[in-house]
Amino acid sequence: MGSRKKKDKAASIAMIILFSVLAILIVLPVFTLFIASFKPGGDLLQYGLNLDLKLERMSLDNYVLLFTGNHDYWRWFLNSIVLTVLTVFCTLFVSAFVGYGFAVYDFKGKNFLFIIVLIILSIPLEVVMLPLYKQISGWGDNYAAIILPFMAHASTIFFFRQYLFGIPQSILEAGRIDGATEFGIFFRLIIPVMKPAFAAMAILNGMNAWNNYLWPLLVIRSSSKYTLTLGLNTLINPYGDNYSLLIVGSFFSIVPIFILFVCFQKYFVEGMTAGAVKG
After folding, report:
1. Which of 126, 154, 168, 252 is 20 to 30 A away from residue 119, measured at CA?
2. Distances (CA, A) of 26 to 7, 20, 84, 85, 148
3. What is the CATH architecture assignment of 70-277?
4. Sign for the pseudo-dihedral over CA of 218, 26, 203, 249
């Protein structure tokens, strides 16, 4: 018994050390970016990103430029917020319907269609990017071309299906006995139960939409519709001093996702845990 306790204690200490190292590796780049946001943009070119705390070189000039300067940063920021909100809403709405269908109903070809979903999970965007672009090339320069092709998101469908397997069938039967329609059962009974799953998928899909770069780069043509990732990329050029705005803008772009995670952290952990063990 004593040796087992020692092994458990040693395992706990090893886990603490491991996760502490991982936490440092994750936080360190963000902290480095935070320090760099107080330095002149020329320092980024000369010294790169570093942890050198030279107080005489640090000021709030970059933040003054961000909030009062003449640039398009806030237009890009607003475009990204609009696109992210629309993407998350459409993806959750459609994927919840599809996941609910796979979990609750029995129909011909159900297993075959779900296998297709699993296959899609293993195919990276780069493989289907060109044929997909050819399909939507006639849609015009708009956000619909970014949102619509990915509304039925394979990983989100899979997660919702696994989560819904844990919902008792008695809820559905009670709804049908009370005379509720199938849509009524979904909207009135199922969606309230799925709040943790919605929160978890909202954060993950929100992060993907906010950081999405490659697909908007192919689709968007007008500079007025640039998202934050595309707009910040235009600042990387050898002409003009754009690196001050680039570095502070890059750091500030983390804020919305950080706020989203803090607000829904409880539901995120609950939803991810439930989705992992159900099914």
Report:
1. 168
2. 28, 10, 24, 26, 33
3. Orthogonal Bundle (1.10)
4. negative
| Cβ density class 185-204: b for 16+ within 10 Å, e for less | bbeebbeeebebbbbbbbbb
Q: Identify the sign of the CA torsion 123, 91, 157, 117.
A: negative
Query: Dihedral sign, CA of 245, 250, 255, 257?
Result: positive
Domain boundaries, the chain: 2-66, 70-277
Distance CA(72)–CA(232), nearest Å, equals 10
Name the one residue in this structure whose structure tokens are 């990017």.
Answer: 129
Give the pLDDT mean for 131-150: 84
pLDDT at site 261: 79
Q: Are 187 and 40 in contact (CB under 8 A)?
A: no
> In which residue are the tokens 């500079």 written?
223
Alpha-carbon dihedral angle through residues 162, 163, 169, 174, given to the nearest 10 degrees: -150
* Interhelix angle 195-211/265-277, nearest 10 degrees: 110
| Model pTM score | 0.83
With a cut of 90, say whether residue 79 has pLDDT above it: yes
Amino acid, single-letter form, for residue 175? G
Reported as a pLDDT band with limits 50, 70 and 90, residue 87 is very high
Q: How far apart are CA 147 and CA 34, in angstroms?
A: 31
What is the DSSP code string of 230-245?
HHHHHT-SSSSS-HHH
- Which pLDDT does position 81 carry in this prediction? 93
Q: What is the pLDDT of residue 279?
A: 45
Q: What is the DSSP letter of 107?
A: -
Q: Is the pLDDT of residue 274 over 60?
A: no
